[in-house]
Amino acid sequence: MNCIHERGNQREKDRERAQARSGGKGKQKDDGLTPEQRRERDAKALQEKAAKKAAQAAGGSNAGGGGGGKK
């Protein structure tokens, strides 16, 4: 009978191990922001990311990674 109890507790043990591995973070959706503030923050992050990518594309166009090599 002791084996049955150990197996029945396995799911709970696995949850504890997984939580310990992830640093005990779990799901934390509550960041203290309203949905509107969250949208603004996300939009700003996306704009910064797009600007960085555009700058990288403009600066990296002559980086020599193309197929126009000499033979």
Shape from CA axes?
elongated
Radius of gyration: 25 Å
Distance between the termini: 76 Å
Structural class: mainly alpha
Task: Give the oligomeric state of the chains in this entry, treating copies of one chain as homo and distinct chains as hetero.
Answer: single chain
| Overall strand count | 0
Q: Please give the count of helices.
A: 3
User: What fraction of residues sit in β-strands?
Assistant: under 5%
What is the helix content?
55-70%
Order of helices and strands: HHH
Largest sheet: none
Low-confidence stretches: none
Task: Round the mean pLDDT to the nearest integer and report it.
Answer: 79
Family: Belongs to the SERF family.
Protein name: Small EDRK-rich factor-like N-terminal domain-containing protein
Pfam family, one: SERF-like_N
Organism: Crotalaria pallida
Keywords:
single chain; 71 residues; mainly alpha
What do these coordinates show?
By secondary structure, this protein is an all-alpha fold. Helix content is about 60%, strand content about 0%. The chain is built from three helices and no strands. Belongs to the SERF family. This is Small EDRK-rich factor-like N-terminal domain-containing protein. It comes from Crotalaria pallida (Smooth rattlebox). InterPro entries: SERF-like_N, SERF1/2-like.
Q: Topology of this structure?
A:
Elements: H1 2-8, H2 10-21, H3 35-59
Structure summarized in a few sentences:
This protein is an all-alpha fold. It has helices at 2-8, 10-21, 35-59.
